Amino acid sequence: MTTAFVAATTTASATATAAEPLPGITPRAETPVLHDDDAGGNADADDPAIWRNTADPARSLVIATAKEGGLRAYDLDARPVQSVAAPPAEGPDDAPGRFNNVDLVHGLKLPSGAADLAVTSDRGHDQLRFYRIDRDRSGGPLTDITDPAAPPVFSADQAEVNEQRTAYGLATWQDKASGRSYALVSRRERTSVALLELLPASGGKVTYRKVRTLDLPSSFRLPNGTSWSPCAEPGELPQVEGMVVDPDNGTLYAGQEDVGIWRMRADLTGKPELVDKVREYGVPGVYDEETEECEAGADPGYGGKRITADVEGLTLVNEEDGDGYLLASSQGDNTFAAYDRELSDRNEYEGGFRVTPAGGALDGSEECDGAAALNEPLGPKYPHGLLVVQDGHDAPGDGDRPATNFKFVDLGKVMKTLDD
Predict the structure, then answer these.
(1) What confidence tens digit (pLDDT) does each residue in 281-333 have?
(2) Are 145 and 130 in contact (CB under 8 A)?
(3) HEC states along 158-221?
């Protein structure tokens, strides 16, 4: 969540919570807590992906980013299986590796054969990194196969990398027509989204090439004729982080954090459409340098009614008949919004829910960043699929230490709640 927008969202969040109570769903398990401090290795839970082991679904994995803490793999009991360190800084004055988002590529054709990969955005180095998934490999299921010559995604040189307007949000996509695999990558503090084709490199490694870039708006014309931009620290534009591609029709959904959810072609051609707006859309704000927050003005009433800034993790729940849901983390009020996946229904709102505590030792999800859903059987623990959500404030916590982790939720409960 952007620090600058906290003050502007408080009133809207409280009003939304009181006016629209949503059903609660309890998690079944949670991963060990991560601490974003020196003692905790600066590990901060952010974004998950779910890899299904087709040979033995009960031995599937959740692969998740921990920012400077690198990459984690968990089993379906939420127990750690492997920890992969982020790469070190290029030099003593350069930024260290920082894994922001993760997604999966299935069956990428390599000289050694087809491989499933975990793909991460390394914000610290402005790169993508690739990890081959082999559940039975000794030493852990993830193997780094990133081409050492992989270029920066957005930056021209190391000086630009160090400014950290770098690779941020991430979604993968396989074009059914061509069979080619791609990653869509957003840029921190900018509105850009880049389309990268994933390519085999020498020595069994993987690299990428940039195909095109699309810039979403940073300023919006309001019905009263005025122009509005979300309040932010000077020089920052409204960035995108949460993204997901519908594999059946090649539609990209992108969450512009302080604006709303965009729908567009995954090849970044055509005109993006705004599916829904955050409640704070159109609210004027003035950034206060001392508090590093925005002082919000009067709400002109142009915002949406379902999501409170920031809009964060986006994920799809696919159903065999082509139906299903687009789920979005409404970070500002600790809820999740569900939209109809079908384009013919124009992604209409279908309901929402919260992930609430299951007991004193197993809390819910607050200020959720990333989320991932898989509507396929995953053995006896999750026969109806799995939803994994980040928890930005794990309880009971450890004093004043930052504490984050991931909650595992029975997707069957989510579907029943939304279908009721």
Answers:
(1) 999 999 999 999 999 999 999 999 999 999 999 999 999 888 999 999 999 99
(2) yes
(3) HHHHHCCCCEEEEEEEECCCCCCEEEEEEECCCCEEEEEEEEECHHHCEEEEEEEEEECCCCEE
